[in-house]
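note to self — DONT lose this again. spent like an hour looking for the file last time. sequence + predicted structure for the chain T wanted, 151 res
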Amino acid sequence: MIIYIGADHRGFKLKEHLKKFLFDKGYEVADVGAATLIPDDDFPDYAKAVAEKVGTDPESGRGILICGSGFGMDIAANKIPGIRSALTASPDHAYQARHDDDVNVLSLAADFVDEADAEKIVQVFISTPFAREERYARRLGKVQGMENTGL
């Protein structure tokens, strides 16, 4: 599995921390930016970059996006077809997002989640499989239908 990670200026420090955490755990990590701290950058640029990477191969890639509130990244990522991003605040949130909804992009709020909690959330996000129960698959099919028809 490859993990695509991106963050704006408010999420940059946490991104750098999580990137090292993931490398140390043996994951392949692709940093799509920002490569350096850019005080006036825009979160949609990184959300789009991560979401497009995940969208090209959703079976073997996952994404992590970080901004101050997490909202901007989450909203922007969900505009890309095939992306199911969730803003999570706890490992339990991350578990449910993966288990029930097959979320493929994790959005984090750097202003509200510390490094230790972010590590726990990321670990659960990466290690939790989609349950593949009929009810969950049926619901995801309905979401995909909405995405395909614009309804």
